[in-house]
Design brief:
seven-stranded parallel beta sheet; globular; two-stranded antiparallel ribbon; TIM Barrel; alpha/beta; single chain; 44% helix; 9 strands
Length: 349
């Protein structure tokens, strides 16, 4: 099967394949015992920047679950580390920055770094290793964080629930905000372009914290920068954010997104009505149900598949990432179920 005929790529192009393609966010790592064994003694960012290790972690869930795509194993702060920004990932907390970016002077300091100067050699090598093993049957999805989520970490200095400082900067110093977000868009674009050049067939832009924004703030201060991050990538684009139901249509980024990921909060048929018939939907199994009895989970998966028929095409995924306590056998069983269900025509709900 030529790679162009892979179900994921057909769905991204707007053609509904015979079976719905399925992959899982955070499928690489966390819940897999082979990942935990491999990571012993290795810090997260070191794993991301060691090509053979990053490649092996990317491939583990493809081998185990039989999913229809690999997602490149990385972290959203990796391109910032490549840019020389001092950041560490603290276990149980997340990315922590030594020097938060909170003033106009801070913004001037960090944006003086040329995004084109990022050394992506290790990333490209890892992608080539993955693509070589996946061959012409399974596409690889490239990965990058969206400008707002990256900015939220930078401005707050680490994880935050409400991102008050980041949201305040938008209004109190919009010039600095746009300068920072614009720079981050170029950083993400450089990171995605490197993965694409090395063989990734599609890319996904993650905006984990966009749900903390009002629709007006998203449209004014965020969407233009996210659109810039995927401009000219030359591959199908999936755009995903958590809690973005109030401005879901804006996640299309003016038509630059070929698919929009939907979290667990909004039924896919309602999402498709908001998004329109000319975009693919991705999602949206509730991760909380991965620990439910199989009869409950199976009914939920079948419901998600049915609701996904309201869109031009559907990529089955979770409404967020795989929780670390998930039994890997459950994910494999979901893949087997999805592949056994023949896709229904558009509007079958």
């Amino acid at each position: 099967m030529p790679l162009d005929d892979a179900p994921l790529l057909r769905a991204l192009a707007g053609t509904r394949p015979e079976t719905t393609p399925v992959w899982f966010m955070r499928q690489a790592g966390r819940s897999l015992p082979e990942y935990r064994d491999l990571r012993v003694g290795t810090r997260m960012l070191d794993a991301c920047l060691t090509p053979d290790l990053a490649a092996e972690i990317t491939l583990q869930p493809v081998r185990r679950h039989g999913v229809d795509a690999g997602i490149f194993f990385s972290d959203i702060v990796v391109p910032l580390r490549l840019a020389g920004v001092e950041v560490e990932i603290e276990p149980g907390r997340g990315p922590v920055f030594a020097d938060p970016v909170r003033t106009a002077a801070d913004v001037a300091r960090i944006t003086a770094i040329d995004p084109a100067s990022l050394d992506t050699t290790q990333i490209e090598e890892a992608v080539r290793l993955v693509v070589a093993e996946l061959g012409d049957r399974t596409p690889l999805i490239g990965f990058a964080g969206a400008p707002f989520t990256l900015a939220a970490y930078l401005v707050e200095g680490g994880p935050s629930k409400e991102h008050l400082r980041a949201r305040a900067m938008m209004h109190t110093d919009p010039e600095s905000w746009n300068r920072l977000a614009g720079w981050l868009a170029r950083v993400s674009q450089t990171f995605l372009a490197a993965q694409r050049a090395a063989g990734a067939s599609a890319v996904q832009l993650f905006d984990s914290w966009a749900g903390s924004l009002s629709p007006a703030d998203y449209r004014t201060f965020v969407a233009p920068h996210s659109a810039a991050a995927v401009e000219g990538i030359g591959a199908p684009v999936i755009h995903f954010g958590v809690g973005t139901g109030p401005f879901l249509a804006d996640m299309r980024l003016g038509g630059r997104a070929d698919a929009v990921g939907v979290d667990w909060r909004l039924p896919l048929d309602e999402a498709a009505a908001l998004l329109g018939r000319d975009v693919t939907v991705q999602g949206n199994i509730d991760p909380a149900l991965l620990t439910a009895p199989w009869a409950v989970l199976e009914a939920h998966v079948r419901d998600v598949l049915q609701r996904g028929t309201a869109a031009r095409a559907h990529i089955l995924n979770l409404g967020h990432g795989v929780p670390p306590e998930t039994d890997p056998a459950v994910l494999t069983r979901i893949v087997e179920l999805v592949h056994a269900v023949r896709a229904e025509p558009v509007g079958a709900l």
